[in-house]
């Protein structure tokens, strides 16, 4: 009876070690890809865009002070809820659930390579370009979206009458 308990204990210790090794590799990917820095920049961009988004809602001039105050509160909320400290465990969980340990090991090797380093280095510039292109496309689509929203509002008014 002692041998099965010992075997069970060994299996448990090995599984725990394998999991901690996988987590360590995931954290190495984060380091190699500068994920913490990229995540902070993303949160800053979201926070910086909030005042403009609120202003674009067509708020009257007399309510601008309230809008500015609300933007400041929302920015504080975003920074609090989206900080690296609060998001890192979620990233670890997502990587852990999505990739096998072999895949994570391969990712570490890739990000340590010259090509991987180039991807890490150039991703922020690539994302800035993609965002700019997306924003340009949204400007092009906006009149059609506004037209359809007006049509829907008019249709709803007709149903209420």
Briefly, what is this?
With 161 residues, the chain is mainly α. It has helices at 2-32, 35-55, 64-81, 84-98, 101-112, 114-160.
Topology:
Blueprint: H1 2-32, H2 35-55, H3 64-81, H4 84-98, H5 101-112, H6 114-160
Helix pairs in contact: 1-5, 2-3, 5-6
Structural summary, described in words:
With about 160 residues, the protein is mainly alpha-helical. The protein folds into 2 domains: about 1-110, no CATH class; about 125-160. The protein contains 6 helices and no strands. Helix 2 (about 35-55) runs antiparallel to helix 3 (about 65-80) and helix 5 crosses helix 6.
Residues in helices, as a percent range:
over 70%
Given as residue ranges, the uncertain stretches (5+ residues, pLDDT < 50) are: 13-17
Number of strands: 0
Globular, elongated, flat, extended or rod-shaped: what is the shape? elongated
Order of helical and strand elements = HHHHHH
Query: Mean pLDDT, as a whole number?
Result: 80
Largest β-sheet summary: none
Our count of domains comes out at: 2
Q: Report how far apart the termini are.
A: 81 Å
Percent of residues in beta strands: under 5%
Structural class: mainly alpha
The number of helices is: 6
Q: What radius of gyration results from the CA coordinates?
A: 24 Å
Key features of this structure:
161 residues, mainly alpha, 2 domains, 6 helices, 89% helix
């Amino acid at each position: 009876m002692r041998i099965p308990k010992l075997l069970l204990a060994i299996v448990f210790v090995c599984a725990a070690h394998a999991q901690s090794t996988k987590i360590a590799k995931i954290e190495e990917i984060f380091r190699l890809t500068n994920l913490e820095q990229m995540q902070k920049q993303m949160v800053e961009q979201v926070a910086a865009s909030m005042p403009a988004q609120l202003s674009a809602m067509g708020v009257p001039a007399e309510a601008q002070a309230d809008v500015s105050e609300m933007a400041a509160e929302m920015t504080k909320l975003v920074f609090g809820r989206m900080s690296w400290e609060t998001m890192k465990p979620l990233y670890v969980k997502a990587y852990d659930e999505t990739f096998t340990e072999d895949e994570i090991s391969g990712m570490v090797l890739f990000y340590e390579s010259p090509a991987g380093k180039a991807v890490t280095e150039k991703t922020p510039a690539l994302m800035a370009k993609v965002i700019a292109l997306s924003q340009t496309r949204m400007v092009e689509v906006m009149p059609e979206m506004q037209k359809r929203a007006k049509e829907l509002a008019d249709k709803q008014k007709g149903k209420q009458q």
